[in-house]
Amino acid sequence: MGLKYRLTLMSFLQFFVWGAWLITIGTYCFNAKGWSGAQFGAIFSTLAISSIFMPPLVGIIADKWMNAEKLYGILHILYGLVLLYVPYVNNPDTLYYVILSAMIFYMPTISLSNSIAYTILKNNNFDVIKTFPPIRVWGTIGFIVAMWITNLTGSKANSNQFLIASVMAIALGIYSFSLPKCPPQKSISKDASIIEMLGLKAFKLFGNYKMAVFFVFAMFLGGALQLTNMYGDSFLDDFRNVPQYANSFVVKYSTIIMSISQISETVFILAIPFFLKRFGIKKVMLISMIAWVLRFGLFAYGNPSDGLWMIILSCIVYGMAFDFFNISGSLFVETTTDSSIRSSAQGLFMMMTNGVGAFLGSKISGFLIDKYFTHNGFKDWHSIWLTFAAYSLVVAVLFAIFFKHKHEPEKLSTINH
User: Whole-model pTM?
Assistant: First the structure.
């Protein structure tokens, strides 16, 4: 098998083993286990907690001491073994620690898989900029396929979703040992301080007004980025409690409906260069924030019959909402930071969005749903989504006011897309 195909398989499985349960764990916790929003919010926040500290630590190990492909394989095998234990857990506090353990092993593999692909392609004289995107898009396809399998096998509300992920993760771990060697680069100086090793020098960027405002808003929007992943499938599945919708396509195939969001991602990624050149980074990020308002607002008024178009449109809008902020934000960091701390600054951006922001979004949304939007065991999804939409709108308005950035097309033209 050629190298590109081997890396494509790695990318496919990398996100398959996450997609098998990420979108449906809410349905499992709410509908199968009957746990509260606060309990589920805590469980989901483990993704954010592990995103804060694990990627840099694993990066140090791969840079200094261990072949990246071997470390990658070990992490996936451990991730798969932890998921095997989920079916035996009947307490939300216990599941919190089980999922936290799984995420400690899984989350750093996302960046590690990119590093492995870059290293192997460069070592074999491939054009990384041209070759990597078609490989990476198969990761999104893997995520979508896993969602479909979970739904079609009747696993979206039971623990089989974790077993599907577990088996494939262990298989991926074993497979990774067959990949070309990616030895440590010894890129970290022996005299480097802990602050330098963890990339914490980038925190000095908070001393710059524009960067500080950007990172604060990255945190605020990060609070919204995972909300529909947390609650979307459970929201659609809850229509089973409404008699006229109980046997609808949306209820039976809620996870497949949600997969339109990931399909949309692959389309909007291709549109980003056009939007950035035409409107600039600030306006593209604003477009993303308005798209989040639409994402939540359309869910608020959608239903499985005459409102189905709103649910479908919400899933389509997701691609713009998610990709436009993540990629334009990354490009903003790339064009405004010194090269000596650029990688650390990118890590800080990810930490503020997928770490701190996502953690706060998970915990606070769970608390609010329990306290204000759950009545007699039923969730008022209409009000929940409207509240999320209002939050996104406030963030967008404040961002437009406080974030000052001039569109400079010549800077963007120097970056390889």
Answer: 0.77
